[in-house]
Amino acid sequence: MHCWPCSPSLRGTGGGFSFACKFYPNLFDFVVLIAHSAGLGVLLFAGLWLVLPNEEISDEEGSVDWLGAGLGVGTLIVFNVAWKQVSTKPPPVVLH
Question: Which of 28-32, 48-52, 79-83 has the lowest mean pLDDT?
Answer without folding.
Answer: 28-32
